[in-house]
Amino acid sequence: MNAPTLRDVYQAKKTIAPYLQRTPLHYSAGLSQFLDAEVYLKHEEYLPLGAFKGRGGINLLANLSQEERDRGVITASTGNHGQSIASACREFGVRAMIGLPEKANPLKVAAMQALGAELIFHGENFDQAREHCERLAREEGYRYVHAVNEPLLIAGVGTAALEIIEDLPDVEVLIFPLGGGSGVSGACIVAKAIDPEIEVLAVQSEAAPAAYLSWKEGDISQAEVTTFAEGVATGMGYELTQSIIAELLDDFLLVSDDDIRYAIGLLVERAHTLAEGAGAVALAGAVKNANRIKGKKISITVSGANITADTLAQALKVYKDRS
């Protein structure tokens, strides 16, 4: 697999444009005051599926051959990637099968069902569901879509970073959540091709640190997953994205699950923004590393807002207790 280039991201932008509108980049006065920096939020939760992954699904399905579409598409997901593939398959008239952990987010499950996907529940986490889908693809001949190791997905989600720099050309720091790494990899490709001085920071939960360990050790690692933030709940690093961030990422930050819960509350109170766990991870990283970004012009990506009422209530309690 070859990593996508800036040219591929521009092509993805053209491919996606008829299906998805640009998402806004809004200055946040409340977060700017709180962090003592010039803070802009990239509102990926404004997309129809409530998450950034929709970009990648459209770009991938649009580029599949008719033979691949006829075979049907199978993938594994904790939710947002599955919604992306399900929605794109519906758009292009392709059969969609989504493998999910048995305790997947019920809101995301309902959304995928509403989009017409066939759901396959297997295992306790993403990687167990992924391995099951890979077996089914080999046995049944489906077109398997890896949630991370797909250049077309990375190019698709990389369009979010392209929009940020188009809207804010003098941005100094881009902060993204990292689960499998497609969004961060796309941001690295875009930012470093346009201006190597733009810093790209990845943030992950310390309760699912496999990607961080893979990056730090320079080899694919596995780790236990206990985070509530299912959008970053990956148990291993992935070859393609790790090869990209090993070369281009400026730094990788870890935060606790309570840091993430606090950031969810902070987004509600200071920025009038609803985010799921993964959607608040980037802000959690900014708060924990406030001295690093002080006085700088930064973009923080809110990657999604598919949160349950119970999870939101727990997060607001943590926020209230810390404030």
Describe the fold and architecture.
- It is a single chain.
- With 323 residues, the protein is of the alpha/beta class.
- The protein is 51% helix and 15% strand.
- It has helices spanning 6-16, 29-35, 54-63, 66-71, 80-92, 106-114, 126-140, 151-167, 182-194, 210-217, 239-248, 257-271, 277-288, 290-293, 309-322; strands at residues 25-27, 38-43, 73-76, 96-100, 118-121, 143-145, 173-177, 199-205, 251-255, 297-302.
- It has a six-stranded mixed β-sheet with strand order 1-2-10-7-8-9, sandwiched between helices. Strands 5-4-3-6 form a four-stranded parallel β-sheet, sandwiched between helices.
- Helix 9 links the parallel strand 7 (173-177) and strand 8.
- The radius of gyration is 18 Å and the shape is globular.
- The model has no long low-confidence stretch (mean pLDDT 96).
Poorly predicted runs are none
Q: What is the string of helix and strand elements?
A: HEHEHHEHEHEHEHEHEHHEHHHEH
Report strand order across the widest sheet.
1-2-10-7-8-9
Radius of gyration: 18 Å
Q: Which structural category fits the helices and strands? A: alpha/beta
- Kindly state the percentage of residues in helix: 40-55%
Shape: globular
Number of beta-strand segments: 10
Mean pLDDT equals 96
Q: Strand fraction band?
A: 5-15%
Strand count, sense and closure of the main sheet?
6 strands, mixed
**Tally of separate helices:** 15
